[in-house]
Structure to design on (237 residues):
């Protein structure tokens, strides 16, 4: 009787071991059958030796020359970050201003039409950009003010004065002063805004992503603007 139990136990152990080995084999098969991920690399076989080939994005080297403090570099890195955040808005602003000017020249025949059209544009711009503008920091707003002047050829104060009224321009200039900003600030590409001008040049050259990566070791987060044109039209009267 004891032998029967011993045989039964050995049989059960053998079955369990076989089951474990089978399960392990199945797992190995599943592992092999997993879909491959990643990007295939180019390779060349020369005299029996395989050499894998890949291309790397260019990097920018920033030597810290004498006289440049760590604080200066931190401010520069912050400027790069803020520029990446707000420059697309300045570019879209230039397109929208050109559209407004073209619409006024083509369709406006009365002062009342112009007033109503500008009012409609203001409301549309507020609907499109209010949430984004409110999420910007003060330093980002200051960079945007300078870039608007560069792209549109007019500082924000002049834009408000020309399209709305001198009173409105004065009011918003007062508000800006409360936040240590100046809507009349002019863009100076060869002076105080030389670093900004250099960033614009890098952006226009198509090298912005690699430049940004060289600083932050990650690619820039893209600013997505839903529309680059306005729907407002001159009201027919």
């Amino acid at each position: 009787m004891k032998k029967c139990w011993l045989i039964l136990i050995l049989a059960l152990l053998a079955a369990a071991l076989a089951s474990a080995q089978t399960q392990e084999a199945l797992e190995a098969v599943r592992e092999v059958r997993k879909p491959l991920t990643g990007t295939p690399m180019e390779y060349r076989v020369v005299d029996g030796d395989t050499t894998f080939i890949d291309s790397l994005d260019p990097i920018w080297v920033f030597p810290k020359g004498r006289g440049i403090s760590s604080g200066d570099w931190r401010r520069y890195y912050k400027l790069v970050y803020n520029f990446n955040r707000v420059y697309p808005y300045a570019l879209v602003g230039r397109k929208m201003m050109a559209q407004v000017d073209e619409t006024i020249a083509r369709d406006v025949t009365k002062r009342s039409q112009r007033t109503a059209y500008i009012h409609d544009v203001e409301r549309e711009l507020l609907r499109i950009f209010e949430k984004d503008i409110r999420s910007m920091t003060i330093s980002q707003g200051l960079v945007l003010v300078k870039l608007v002047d560069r792209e549109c050829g007019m500082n924000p104060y002049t834009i408000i004065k020309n399209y709305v009224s001198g009173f409105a321009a004065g009011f918003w200039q007062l508000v800006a002063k409360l936040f240590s900003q100046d809507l009349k600030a002019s863009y100076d590409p060869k002076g105080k805004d030389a670093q900004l001008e250099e960033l614009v040049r890098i952006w226009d050259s198509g090298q912005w992503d690699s430049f940004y990566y060289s600083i932050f070791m990650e690619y820039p987060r893209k600013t997505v603007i839903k529309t680059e044109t306005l729907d407002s039209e001159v009201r027919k009267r």
